[in-house]
Amino acid sequence: MNSTPQAVDWQASAKLLQPRQQLFIDGGFVPALAGATFDCISPVDGKVIAKVAAGDARDIDAAVISGRAAFNRGDWSRAKPAHRKQVLLRFAELLRAHCDELALTETLDMGKPIADSLAVDVPSSANCIQWYAEAVDKIYDEVAPTGNNALALITREPLGVVGAIVPWNFPMIMAAWKLGPILAAGNSIVLKPSEKSPLSALRMAELALEAGLPPGVFNVVTGFGHTAGKALASHMDVDGIAFTGSTPTGKLIMGYAAQSNLKRVSLECGGKSPNIVMADCRDVERAARAAAYAIFFNQGEMCSAGSRLVVHESLKDQMLEQIAKVGRELAPGDPLDPATRLGAIVDMQQMRRVLGYIDAGKQDGARLAFGGAQAREASGGCYIEPTAFDGVRPDMRIAREEIFGPVLATITFRDEAEAIAIANDTAYGLAAAVWTQDLDTAHRMARAIRAGMVYVNCYDADDITVPFGGFKQSGMGRDKSLHAFDKFTELKTTWIELQ
Fold first, then answer.
1. What whole-number distance in Å separates Cα of residue 136 and Cα of residue 139?
2. Whole-number Å distance between alpha carbons of 215 and 238
3. Residue 482 CB contacts under 8 Å (≥ 6 apart), including other chains
4. CB-CB contact of 35 with 58 (8 Å)
5. pLDDT at position 212, please?
6. pLDDT digits (tens, 9 = 90+) for 197-206
7. Residue 1: which pLDDT band, with cuts at 50, 70 and 90?
8. N or C: which end of the chain has fewer CB within 10 A?
9. For this structure, is 303 an active site residue?
10. Plot region of 9 (φ>0 → left; ψ -120 to 50 → alpha; else → beta)
11. By C-alpha distance, which of 487, 468, 480, 462 is closest to 268?
């Protein structure tokens, strides 16, 4: 049984935590073949948590060989769906049973508040695994409507060995979004977590084995993108690669896949999502609070963050005043304090990047409405104040480039056509929102905005039953929902001629 956040001494628990540090291949922990390691540094205080194995191409090859052998063996790939269901349900329950440990690992590794790790990250990951477990024996194959002289069967088969590369902002959740459909469909997986947050993936693999997943089905290789990540995407015996991360890296992944064996590619990449507040928005305070959390939650480290506030000129001052109020409530604090609502930026490199964008906004002529400074410097960690700019033009860097930090760019408009033009004036197309009381306006704008998800009178509403993914350079393919199975299965037609 897990405790409430207030009942645990998280500082003391952090000192006792012993995270897994080696690669997980063929059902066991092993060092990198080259013996290399890298320091896993906590953004909470700048201290080293662990020395983690730095896998390279040879380790990726060992993991892929293990995954292929498991797939060919068939004790998972050809197992009855009902069996895979029971194993994955046990896996989900083990994630819940180890909630405190996993949440603490997540907070120390990437800096998010312990309250969020406990309430959001671990439960959402377990729920995702459970949902795909329950779906696996409810997906039916098809019989095509051919003539009476033939029987045409359309069946789904697992893809084979799938590589998954996941980011550092939601390490467990992003891993679960890949693991759920990949494993439920009967594939083997080689998971490469971000080198900025590698720890929870290793523990998840260990718990999956405990739940009954056969050795070799779930392998984890920690290491760097330019070595382990590139080797996984380039591997000739990997049948598909699923990636979540930045658009520039997604383009590299596509290139590696094309240059190797033309493996299937699915990408969930960056975003610069518009949060549009129309003049008829009746509850400005609610819209402002949602806008604040849309950019400040998880320290703004979200691909779907509402980083562009596109607001009617008549409401701009009122919206910014209310957002600033929420920003003051979200002053960065110690992530191990259950009362903290805004934690640490993942590392020094990312903190300097965000601060560089804040400087660029000032230099380009935007007005700093509030925030804009590093916080809690004495802690040794990486913290930035909630920040908002006013007077942003659509051509400014802070309006066009993904910052991945708690920085809001405010752009005004005069009419619906201008709002839509601003919303679509981006290389990205992941998410968007429209705040309006008019049903016609809501439907008209939702159709006009080029994004994979359009929220109406809310932001970042979420459920495992709906697909997640974007248009344009935000990627291709969808995570979550039954649509995710399309990425990790092959359709086979079996045509039987009847005499």
1. 6
2. 18
3. 135, 139
4. no
5. 98
6. 999 999 999 9
7. very low
8. C
9. yes
10. beta
11. 468
CA distances for 332 relative to 28, 219, 375, 405, angstroms: 39, 36, 7, 13
Tokens matching residue 106: 């997540």
- For CA atoms 471, 476, 481, 483, the dihedral sign is positive
Distance CA 233, CA 256 (A): 6
pLDDT band at 3; cut points 50, 70, 90 = low
Q: Is residue 5 over pLDDT 80?
A: no
CB neighbour list of residue 463: distance below 8 Å, 6 or more residues apart: none
Q: Name residues whose C-beta falls within 8 Å of residue 125's C-beta, 6 or more positions apart in sequence.
A: 95, 172, 173, 175, 176, 204
Phi/psi for 41 (5° steps) reads -105, 130
Q: Assess contact for 453 and 483: CB atoms under 8 A.
A: no
How far is it, in rounded angstroms, from Cα 52 to Cα 486?
A: 34
487: nearest Cα among 138, 26, 164: 164
382 tagged catalytic: no
Q: Which of 451, 356, 370 is nearest to 405 (CA)?
A: 356
124 phi, psi to nearest 5 deg: -65, -40
Tokens matching residue 415: 């009419």
Quote the CA–CA distance of 476 and 493 in Å, as a whole number.
Answer: 25
pLDDT digits (tens, 9 = 90+) for 378-416: 999 999 999 999 999 999 999 999 999 999 999 999 999
2 pLDDT tier (thresholds 50, 70, 90): low
Name the active-site residue from 99, 303, 385, 402. 303
- Which listed residue (106, 268, 402, 416) is catalytic? 268
- Cα→Cα distances 303→29, 386, 447, Å: 32, 17, 21
Mean pLDDT of 174-185: 98
Contacts of 33 by beta carbon, 8 Å cutoff, 6+ apart: 55, 56, 58, 59, 62
Instruction: Return the bridge partners of 383, or none.
Output: 375
Residue 239, pLDDT > 80, answer yes
